[in-house]
Each structure stands twice: as C-alpha cells, then as structure tokens.
Amino acid sequence: MMTDLKIALMDLQCEMVAERSLANPDDITWLQYDILNRLDKSEKVLPSYLSVSLGVSRTKLSKSLKNLKALGLIEQSPSLTDGRELYTSITAHGVKLLASISDRHHLLHQTAFHALTVQEQKDFATLANKFSTALRKERIGRHE
Hints:
Shape: elongated
Radius of gyration: 19 Å
Low-confidence stretches: none
Pfam families: MarR_2
CATH architecture: Orthogonal Bundle
Helix content: over 70%
Keywords: DNA-binding, Transcription, Transcription regulation
GO molecular function: DNA binding; DNA-binding transcription factor activity
Protein name: HTH marR-type domain-containing protein
Organism: Pseudolactococcus plantarum
Number of domains: 1
C-alpha cells in the first residue's frame, strides 16, 4: 500500500527530474555538471585535482572530460612541465550553460517562494536538508 509520504516523494522526484531536463538542455550528467561547476570557480586545473576533489576515479573523470570537450564546454592544454598532463578549463559555452542552469534554479526558488508561506518555506528547507543528509549518509555507508 502506498502511503501519502511515498506518493509525495515519487511525485517530487518526477517533478525534479522534469525540471532538471529543462535546466539541462545539453543533457550533461551530474558528474559533468560538478566538473563544470568546479572549473567555473578556478583557473586551469589538472585532472588529478578534479579526481580527488570530486571523489571519482581517473577513468570515470577522463570519460566525462572527453564528453565535455566534445560538447565544447571545456578545453584542455598541455602542461608546460609535463606534456602528458592536460590543464583543463571551462569555455565560454560552458560558463553560459552554467548560467542557464542557474537561471532555472532561480525559477525553482521563485516557484517555491510563491507557492509556500514563509513558515512552510522554513519547514521545507529544514525537512529537505534533513532528508538529503540522511540519503547522503546512507549512500556513503553503503560504500564504506
């Protein structure tokens, strides 16, 4: 039997996936978004830094970087000291995509702002953060 909570969670997940699709016209993965977001806050960085800071294997990172490069969202240039290493940076197109996604996040915020009372906004933020933390802890616990 489905409870109201289960139905609400399923509906919210469906809506958030739909919103993500609208916010992500280039259909990049979550990891690719995280890479772009990290690059947007720094100058050129080495893949080894990205791998450690994002907690992903070099193989997985390399595949994502290859796809981002093919989409024109990042560029890579050889290190002056070690030609085998490639410095990675975000392109203007990548910055534009992040801005577009940020605009969509702003629309989500505005929808919540108008749909919920001030108290409901506070309650939702508290509950969403509590639930996100529980999901994260459960996921990390499964991989330890």
